[in-house]
Amino acid sequence: MPALLDRYQDAPSATRALIHAAMDTRRLGDRHVVEVTQRPDGGPLAVLNWATAELDPGVTMARLHLGAPETGAVQDLGQVGVGAQSPVWWNHDGEWHLGSVSLVSFESR
To answer: Which domain of life is it from (predicted)?
Structure first.
């Protein structure tokens, strides 16, 4: 157990914030966190999550939240596509952007 505590204490602040957020389920309510990606400059965490706490709910609507490691504040960015995965950050002209991959249905005409 002391080795685990040492790993926690030596972890970067974003890692500790993620552990705190995972322990404090009130921040995302009754949601299942699917993936977490921190902005490359040490900024906020992008948290992709499902609208259920179930581990394998089938098709469900996903949402994207931002979490601030320093304060624990959470911002809901809204719904993302079905099957959303792989959140990714990129910087263009000094402005950060966030995207993810999701399923798209095409209508045949």
So the answer is: Bacteria
Centre a 10 Å sphere on the Cβ of residue 91 and count the other Cβ atoms it contains.
11
List the beta strands (DSSP E) in 5-108: 32-38, 45-50, 62-67, 74-80, 85-92, 95-101
Rounded Cα distance between 18 and 36, Å, is 9
Instruction: Quote the domain boundaries for residue 57.
Output: 2-101
Q: Is residue 75 part of a domain?
A: yes
Number of domains into which the chain is organized: 1
The secondary structure of residue 20, as a DSSP letter, is H
Q: List, for residues 2-29, the tens digit of each pLDDT value.
A: 676 677 778 777 677 666 665 554 566 6
Classify residue 17: in a domain, yes or no: yes
